[in-house]
Description:
Blueprint: E1 2-15, E2 18-25, E3 42-43, E4 46-48, H1 55-67, E5 69-85, E6 93-108, E7 123-128, H2 129-135, H3 139-155
Parallel strand pairs: 1-6
Antiparallel strand pairs: 1-2, 1-4, 2-3, 2-7, 5-6
Helix pairs in contact: 2-3
Amino acid sequence: MLREFSAGGVVIRIRQGTWWIAAIELPNEELPDQSARSKPVLALPKGLVDPGEKPLEAALREVREETGVTADLIAKLGDSKYVYVRSWGDGQRVFKIVSFYLMRYQSGRINQIAPEMRIEVARARWIRLQDASKLLAYGGERQIAQRALDYVKAHLEC
Length: 158
């Protein structure tokens, strides 16, 4: 079985006493069975770790590329592990590990991304952290969002 390593970020910011995170909306063509979908599919920004790159570097790069914002590391939240079958090329099974980091927003405008990124990201937007575990499409990412919420409640003041 092939192995893949990716990294991503949960970028938080506080506005008017509420914590928000940067999320991405996937393009329609990225998803199977589009006809049954009535609402956007939201995910956390993430991507493959390039050769010679450290997971944190990849996470910071992916956040910038997919959302348009820059952020600083707060803490590692954990890893999401799963198996998927490639829907392209050889159709192989892949064991994937995605390392997620909690980050604090520094600068940039959400959704101000390069045109070539629109094949991966239909739109980037802020969602309330307390709603993220319900809004994100993937179970592992919902768990990571819950960890981020727990961390914020335990360590950061509004």
